[in-house]
């Protein structure tokens, strides 16, 4: 009786098993997509161009992705995940004072997106401009704003936190910051890094204090 080849373990090649090799190839493709998308934009990303940059054949592209759109989404998700981790880490390890903590978080996030300009372009330009990313981009916005909303609930701005205020304010913070970073990273806001961080900090503080509780009464 012939053994089912699908159930036969694949032998390691140079000490690396098949699944690890597949994961590495997928990482190479995502990294290549990140480079092209972050440098020339989502429209410049093609399957062949990504394969050339990753030094892989088209066969390996379709091993990991159903098509170009799936790769773009994977690049955006990886970039957003890294940025969100920076936010969470900064919130957990910052100073106790509310404004000092906000400044610390803004500084950490700004350092992250300026350390590699491709990150900022993907997060604040391509995620909003590329039609292929529209649906997934909205989901990632929700994930970002949920992180911001939780932070606004936890921080002390003097007064009781209303759930709807926190939700509305987190959306406002995300929208304001996305636009400010888009302009600043694109050199359309000619101000220095220190002043930009301070201004963003104050914008978050102001928006976090917004309330419409009395309108329900």
TrEMBL record:
Residues 1-22 are annotated as: Disordered. SUPFAM superfamilies: Homeodomain-like, Tetracyclin repressor-like, C-terminal domain. Keywords: DNA-binding. Residues 23-83 form the HTH tetR-type domain. The keyword Acetylation does not apply. Transmembrane segments: none annotated. It comes from the Bacteria. Residues 46-65 bind DNA. It holds the Pfam family TetR_N. Gene3D superfamilies: Homeodomain-like, Tetracycline Repressor, domain 2. InterPro entries: Homeodomain-like_sf, HTH-type_TetR-like_transc_reg, HTH_TetR, Tet_transcr_reg_TetR-rel_C_sf. PANTHER family: HTH-TYPE TRANSCRIPTIONAL REGULATOR RUTR (PTHR30055), POSSIBLE TRANSCRIPTIONAL REGULATORY PROTEIN (PROBABLY TETR-FAMILY) (PTHR30055:SF209). This is TetR/AcrR family transcriptional regulator.
């Amino acid at each position: 009786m012939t053994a089912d080849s699908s159930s036969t373990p694949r032998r390691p090649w140079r000490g690396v098993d098949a699944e690890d090799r597949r994961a590495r190839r997928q990482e190479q493709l995502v990294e290549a997509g990140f480079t092209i998308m972050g440098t020339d934009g989502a429209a410049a990303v093609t399957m062949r161009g990504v394969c050339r940059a990753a030094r892989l054949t088209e066969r390996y592209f379709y091993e990991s992705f159903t098509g170009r759109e799936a790769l773009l989404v994977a690049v955006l998700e990886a970039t957003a995940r890294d940025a969100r981790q920076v936010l969470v880490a900064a919130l957990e390890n910052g100073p106790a004072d509310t404004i000092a903590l906000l400044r610390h978080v803004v500084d950490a996030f700004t350092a992250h997106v300026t350390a590699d300009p491709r990150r900022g372009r993907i997060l604040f330009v391509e995620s909003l401009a590329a039609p292929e990313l529209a649906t997934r981009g909205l989901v990632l916005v929700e994930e970002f704003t949920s992180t911001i909303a939780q932070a606004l609930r936890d921080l002390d701005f003097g007064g009781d936190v209303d759930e709807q205020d926190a939700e509305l304010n987190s959306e406002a913070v995300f929208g304001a910051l996305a636009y400010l970073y888009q302009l600043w990273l694109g050199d359309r806001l000619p101000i220095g890094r220190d002043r930009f961080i301070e201004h963003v900090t104050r914008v978050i503080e102001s928006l976090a204090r917004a309330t419409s509780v009395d309108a329900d009464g």
